[in-house]
Every structure is written in C-alpha cells, then in structure tokens.
C-alpha cells in the first residue's frame, strides 16, 4: 500500500506543478523505472480530467501486481 500511496502523492504534486505553467494539454508524459508508475498515474488522472495525453512513455518499469489498479489503469489508458 505504501508503494501505491507514494505514486499517487507524487502524481498529484507533479500534475499540480505542470498545470501551473501549462493549464491545458496536450501533455506528453514519460517516466523511467519508478517514474514510469508515476507517469502512468499522471496520464490516467489527466485523461480523467478531460485533458489530452497523446503520448505516454514508460522506460524500464517492471509490471508488478500491486493490485488490479495499476493493471486497470494501464489497460484503460491504451484503449
């Protein structure tokens, strides 16, 4: 659960910082290793908020079963 909450906290913080400078998308997001999970969470939240995320790059992030949430977000993003 700590992993999941850390991802959410970082994603919320990064989105707030980005949207201060760029209130509207499109947003091109990428993340490396642990940052890949944060990037995925950011992309999902931005899409849920009605923003465009035409590109999500995830590098060197393993697929782990932290729960169905990450798998569901990944599947819904790529639909």
Word description of this protein:
The protein is α+β, with helices and mostly antiparallel strands and 79 residues long. It is 57% helix and 13% strand. It has helices at 2-21, 34-48, 68-77; strands at 28-32, 55-59. The protein has a two-stranded parallel ribbon with strand order 1-2. β1, α2 (34-48) and β2 form a beta-alpha-beta unit. α1 (2-21) packs across α2 (34-48) and α2 crosses α3 (68-77). The longest helix has 20 residues, at 2-21. It starts with a helix and ends with a helix. The relative contact order is 0.18. The mean pLDDT is 84.
Tally the helices.
3
What is the molecular shape? globular
What string gives the helices and strands in order? HEHEH
Largest sheet geometry: 2 strands, parallel
Would you report the number of β strands? 2
What is the average of the pLDDT values? 84
Unreliable residue runs: none
State the end-to-end distance: 26 Å
Helix content: 55-70%
What does the radius of gyration come to? 12 Å
Provide a concise account of the structure shown:
This protein has three helices and two strands, in the order H-E-H-E-H.
Detail the topology: elements first, then pairings.
Elements: H1 2-21, E1 28-32, H2 34-48, E2 55-59, H3 68-77
Parallel strand pairs: 1-2
For the structure shown, list the relevant keywords:
two-stranded parallel sheet; 13% strand; globular; 57% helix; alpha+beta; single chain; 2 strands; 79 residues
């Amino acid at each position: 659960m700590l992993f999941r909450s850390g991802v959410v906290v970082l994603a919320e913080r990064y989105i707030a910082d980005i949207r201060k400078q760029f209130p509207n998308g499109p947003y091109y997001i990428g993340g490396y290793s642990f940052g890949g999970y944060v990037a995925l969470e950011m992309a999902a939240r931005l899409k849920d908020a009605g923003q465009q995320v035409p590109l999500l790059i995830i590098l060197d992030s393993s697929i782990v079963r932290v729960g169905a949430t990450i798998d569901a977000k990944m599947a819904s993003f790529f639909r």
